[in-house]
Amino acid sequence: MILPIVAYGDPVLRKVATSIDATYPELETLISNMKETMYNASGVGLAAPQIGKAIRLFLIDASPFADDEDLSEKDREVLKNFNRVFINAKIIKEEGEEWAFNEGCLSIPDVREDVTRHEKITIEYQDEGFQTHTEILDGLAARVFQHEYDHIEGILFTDKLSSLKKRILKKKLENISKGKIRADYRMRFPNLKKGK
Asked: What does R_g of the chain's alpha carbons equal in angstroms?
């Protein structure tokens, strides 16, 4: 089932999400619905807060980036197979040079900006079977992970922009929160009155 994606301005996007365990109700269905929602919106990642649930769960399928000719063969190979569910994820270590990359977000349609992030991270997470994994990610895989991880920490990519950029985007972000935007996928807007 395709779920509506929560728009910028909804308080759920600002909550630090809570951990879950294997008893979380209908988790398999939720993950399946989130995948369908992400693919329907042509996203490469989707976090539970973006569908209104403040839990530590997100999905990534970075395979669309594998076609990018500007990436190294190694990066393309990693991204081609970078399709996972992350539960109760933690970043254990950030290292390497920080680098800028143009990011967007399904909760903030039609806004793309350069965001600086660490190039290499060590992460710990659980998969759908609640098996724990520790991994090192770098390059674009690390970046996509950090973007989705921020969602479960109540952080949006626009928070990482300069004061000037935030002022320039202020009106556009207000319009998104009021539903004065058209997206190619279902959205839920926080500032629309019920019944309208």
From this structure: 16
